[in-house]
Write a structure and sequence with these properties.
Chain lengths: ~160, ~160
């Protein structure tokens, strides 16, 4: 139940991304029953390939805890993280990852690869999938449908 | 020859990290014969697990070019990038990566894993290794030697 509450907050962040014409991914980070970071994808707005929701949220959470290690935190993200974000979650030593929908193209927790099977990994964590999966993938497919829709030309009969 | 010049600049950044008590990794990014980003590892200073030299340099370079894609850039880094940084280099669509020394524990270009072998990867690039390898690994081993050295207790005899 708690997972669904936090994932709804992550989904709100994904909707913010959608409204800003960003690939709609949202993330929140919880620690001891409290949300300490909320972020949405900002790659287009910041023109920065590293500005994924998870990366921004990790930096926020580290700042909130005053620590480079996010021990004891749970990360909620609407879509399976990519390799960059997965690597950051390992470096941050999180306790648990919860995500909505798989990303068959770039997901790094079993889809394109599985970062937790990397040899010599010095930190691992629990992963829970498919929490609000339909809502998380629906907003993504709506976004790409909108992107592909032809723009009506003004002044053409 | 040009590679050695740029790698010397990356090494200068690694020395800055060393002086700030950070794991000494440095990075510069070059575009059309000019350095557009220089950064060193700042994980301890910023208390941010994502603040690797490469990540900071990628954000700087994207800002310099006004683009989320770093097409045509070459990235020089003293140590083989980890999975987070490797993922960011793929997302940034760089042209070429040049690095100094392998990182057997976490390197993502053949040591711990090889990100360029991920299935379905939508961007790849040339990788050149072993440029100023000895200098790049020497500064790392000096750093960890210093860390392990016992601190002399003040006021004991």
């Amino acid at each position: 139940m708690q997972d669904i509450i936090y994932m709804r907050e992550a989904l709100k962040q994904a909707h913010r991304a959608f409204d800003n014409n960003e690939v709609p991914v949202g993330c929140v980070i919880a620690y001891k029953g409290r949300i300490i970071a909320r972020a949405h994808n900002q790659v287009e707005t910041l023109k920065d390939p590293t500005a994924h929701a998870e990366m921004i949220a990790i930096t926020q959470a580290a700042s909130a805890l005053g620590s480079k290690w996010l021990q004891g935190v749970s990360v909620y993200v609407t879509i399976e993280p990519c390799q960059m974000c997965a690597g950051a979650l390992v470096l941050a030593r999180i306790k648990r990852l919860v995500y909505g929908a798989d990303d068959p193209k770039t997901g790094a927790f079993g889809s394109a690869c599985d970062i937790l099977k990397t040899r010599g990994l010095n930190h691992s964590f629990e992963v829970t999938r498919n929490i609000l999966c339909r809502e998380s993938s629906f907003i993504i497919s709506e976004f790409f449908k909108k992107k592909r829709r032809p723009i009506k030309k003004a002044g053409v009969n």
